[in-house]
Fold:
Amino acid sequence: MTTPLASPDVLEPEMIRRSVDEALAEFLTEKDSSVSQPHLPYLSGLVRDFLSGGKRVRPLLCVTGWQAVGGGENAGPVFRVAACLEMFHAFALIHDDVMDLSDTRRGRPTVHRALAAQHASCRGPDEVEWFGMSAAVLLGDLALTWSDELLHGAGLTPAQFEVVLPLVSRMRTEVMLGQYLDLHATGELTDDVEATLNVYRYKTAKYTIERPLHVGAAIAGADAGAMAAFTSYALPLGEAFQLRDDLLGVYGDPRVTGKSRLDDLRAGKNTTLTALALRAADARQEATLRRLVGDPSLDEEGASVVRGIFEAVRARETVEQMIDDRLRQALGALDDAPFTADAVGALKRIARTATTRDS
Amino acid sequence: MTTPLASPDVLEPEMIRRSVDEALAEFLTEKDSSVSQPHLPYLSGLVRDFLSGGKRVRPLLCVTGWQAVGGGENAGPVFRVAACLEMFHAFALIHDDVMDLSDTRRGRPTVHRALAAQHASCRGPDEVEWFGMSAAVLLGDLALTWSDELLHGAGLTPAQFEVVLPLVSRMRTEVMLGQYLDLHATGELTDDVEATLNVYRYKTAKYTIERPLHVGAAIAGADAGAMAAFTSYALPLGEAFQLRDDLLGVYGDPRVTGKSRLDDLRAGKNTTLTALALRAADARQEATLRRLVGDPSLDEEGASVVRGIFEAVRARETVEQMIDDRLRQALGALDDAPFTADAVGALKRIARTATTRDS
Structure:
């Protein structure tokens, strides 16, 4: 693989993507030849396809965290660790889609749907669906195992490994606990705005923003002050990122987001948006929301009614305001951060993109 | 934890169990205090309960493999690696039970059933079941992550870690691929005896017997000859172990096995037993088998009919014969193996127990 210098170039998103993709491709090719098992190329091919659709947010942040505190001579290991984070994310999404019973991801059928469609020899539709779910759980398990192997094969020095490993372990447990919080909250709509934000902290702010920055920075030997500065940037930005995601889940253009904008509503997902709406709703609006949000057969018409209430009670507006506030906080945290000027520029761009994106 | 010497005592199964259980308990207690998240003690408690029912087959083999090639001064690391294998196995079983839609395990409700029962706030029975499945997938994910942390915290030297890690990685990929083979084969009954034995090689022989021995032996610095001897013992024994399991799944006493003896038949599981029966069946018997095996509503009466055919076509007898042959091969492999006399004795006992057990 190409071994770029720790120059400003290293922050070029396209370059990061390319280097991470090379690391992933190299790993999967080696994997195919390591175990002789007839289904392995098919399964690794599914992982490969799945990975090809990603935005590489975590790798981008990991490399940026590394460069922000001075990087180092050899960028190879940080790209391979970034690839490990992307493989871990593939695991998390594959299992999330099973748990959310989602049909599409990144504009394509979800893995459990694709696996079900491929399995035509089964008896009935229930069995086909069951096969898809089971095989997707298994494919996620493989991706989790492989993310671990990518970390071990990253070429970190023992000293680097010793600081990176506890961060990665913590990240894994945190996101799983966040997912549990989320699961646990599904099923009954809540007006507890703070509880929804708590899920975002675990599932998104820490997992998507803070830990990737920390992991990259740890490879470059960051001190406690730098780590704290990353946290001050990451936590508000992560919440803003997730708040944007919630809006996209309800208002986004499916052709751009690649996701149905009915899934979240049908699943009765507790978001800050729904919590704010419930809190501000009058009795009739509340009854309508409780009837429609979580109805698995909700159609576009019903969804329009829900969107109308979100706007009438200004829940949508409040979420936009919360995103703005958090974006400002995140940018403010960069003012005195002990980071390279190039990284500060990149982190500002990332913050703006993450909060104003349409996909 | 107690640090036993590499004496014959180290092969005492009760002692191995106690030391492994201590390592697991220590890890989970530390885990509870490491991340402040309200649901963590509940989730780690579920893992703890699940672990408490295990037979510790893999830890036993891991420690035996280590002692067989001379062990070492300090047995602490090998017990902690053995604990990692047990935690990995908890992950594998929790996910297997989700995929098999099993209701009981070790005489108690499976994890997804227990989680569903605990989640009373959901709306309908479908949602409760969905929550149980999803949370069980997540709990399995946590156990997989934690097994990794146990390995890293085992206190291996860098040289030991370097030989153990690739074995553990391989073991993980192998068992997942074996599970995929198994899933893929479910749904249509096969008379391909060799195909069923191939699944056993991946899912059981390598995973349950060979790799635990290899991992333990690698910690003690085993050479290639010793590794090959373990393989010659492990592969036939693993097949025999699984063949016994199949018989127990259909003929076992649920009060002793802790498993329903209808689950495998209802799921239409392809076993060597069913493949042999199909191959030997006449047209009428075959039609009956294809109608009953895989029928989710099969009752004891239907199961008796199936068992009757298994016996009439001598499939049960053939499986018993295959177990005997393989047991003989496994014991024969110990004759010239470069192992300590105590370990040879222990491996012989393990082989007999694994193939003649009633649970």
